[in-house]
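Q: I'm building a small set of examples for a reading group on sequence design. Run inverse folding on the following structure and report the sequence directly after it, with nothing in between.
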């Protein structure tokens, strides 16, 4: 039996789920375990529940799900999933496939040691234990009350970058820093509703460099501290492109690299890789673009 549930708000996103009992797929072999990554509540956590056999079945952020099959619908990959005695369909865009990362003895991911992109996720519950607040004087104008956290080593690098820019007459401020996966899920859900399953504006929860605690969104008072592509036309951006690497910091999503990164061009998003990683990073793929 098929149940259809749609969420309407701006763009209509139609989600189709099929429910069976586990006996119907007794011979199916699990493919892998994945994790549900949309927030609980609203249109997505109650998955079209209107039959007796599916009554009381809900999905919540971080729920572990077994994938038993997959198929393509137009250009979108859908999974046949199992949780308990229920079987249903989910688009690939709604799940995280687990993680393989390099951690230190304290459980923190080694700085510069792990790529984080569409193919390389972090554990959904990952949160570095050495996060510290960004001092007020390094925050962008208008963001003074926003809590911004970075790992200690990364914060020192970004502070050094900002101070060097100031000595050159350039004003740079931090808008966004660490984000946990739950907060990322809210941003991701909003982007999917607005732009569809194939949107490339917001990373999946677990796939965002912000969760590392070593990435920042930067801006300047030249554009009224906005988060905008117009940042590329500022003296602050041009200064960053020439000097960020000296601090072990790199632009994550350059122009013309969408195929390599999987995300749209973001002139404001910079990641601290560590100075020891810089030579390797630049040889691997990074090409600066200076307008």
């Amino acid at each position: 039996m098929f149940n259809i549930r749609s969420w309407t708000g701006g763009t209509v996103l139609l989600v189709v789920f099929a429910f069976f009992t586990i006996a119907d797929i007794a011979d199916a072999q699990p493919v892998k375990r994945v994790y549900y990554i949309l927030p609980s509540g609203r249109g997505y956590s109650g998955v079209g529940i209107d039959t007796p056999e599916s009554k009381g079945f809900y999905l919540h952020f971080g729920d572990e799900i077994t994938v038993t099959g997959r198929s393509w619908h137009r250009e979108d990959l859908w999974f046949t999933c199992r949780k308990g005695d229920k079987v249903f369909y989910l688009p690939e865009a709604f799940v995280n496939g687990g993680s393989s990362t390099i951690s230190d003895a304290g459980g923190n991911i080694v700085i510069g040691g792990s790529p984080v992109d569409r193919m390389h996720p972090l554990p959904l519950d990952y949160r570095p234990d050495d996060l510290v607040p960004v001092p007020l004087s390094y925050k962008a104008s208008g963001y003074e009350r926003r809590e911004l956290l970075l790992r200690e080593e990364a914060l020192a690098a970004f502070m050094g970058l900002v101070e060097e820019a100031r000595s050159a007459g350039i004003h740079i401020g931090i808008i966004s820093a660490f984000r946990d996966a739950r907060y990322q899920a809210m941003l991701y859900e909003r982007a999917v509703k607005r732009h569809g399953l194939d949107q490339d504006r917001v990373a999946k929860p677990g796939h965002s460099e912000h969760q590392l605690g070593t990435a920042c969104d930067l801006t300047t008072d030249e554009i009224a501290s906005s988060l905008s592509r117009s940042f590329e036309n500022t003296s602050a951006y041009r200064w960053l492109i020439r000097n960020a690497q000296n601090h072990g910091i790199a632009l994550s999503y350059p122009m013309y690299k969408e195929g390599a990164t999987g995300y749209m061009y973001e002139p404001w998003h910079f990641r601290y890789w560590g100075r020891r990683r810089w030579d390797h990073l630049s040889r691997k793929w990074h090409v600066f673009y200076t307008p």
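The chain has a mean pLDDT of 80.
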